[in-house]
Every structure is written in structure tokens, then in C-alpha cells.
Design brief:
alpha/beta; single chain
Amino acid sequence: MATIVGYDRWFAQKVVAVDIKGYISQQRDNYLAGKLNDDELKKSFDRLETVITAIPKNRVIIMGDAVVRNAETVKP
């Protein structure tokens, strides 16, 4: 039992969706509306990169708009 749980947790490939397109669109709209300045926009994109690089290696990352259902979705 422990072998199966360990394999599932650390080695088995899992699919994770990241809504990059929606996040960039939201940040662009906030920037154009004047809610974000240049530094805040850069920090928001750095946060997106941090979230994506923090996803474990055994996760397959796909775009959030490609998911129909039953996939874990990460929102930065």
C-alpha cells in the first residue's frame, strides 16, 4: 500500500492546467485601466513565472483553456 501511495504522490504523471491566457488578459486590462503601474505589472508576471516553476516535475502543464473538465487548475 505504501509503495502505491508513494508512487502516486511522487512519480505518477498528473495533469495541471494553468490559465495563462486569462491571467495575462486580466493583467493587460488592469494595466490599461490604470490599476497597475509598470512595476506592479512586472511583479505580476514574475508571480506567474514563480507559480509555474513551483509546480512539481511530475505534473504535466497545459493551458487552462484546453481543459474541458476533471483537471486541477492553478490560478496565479
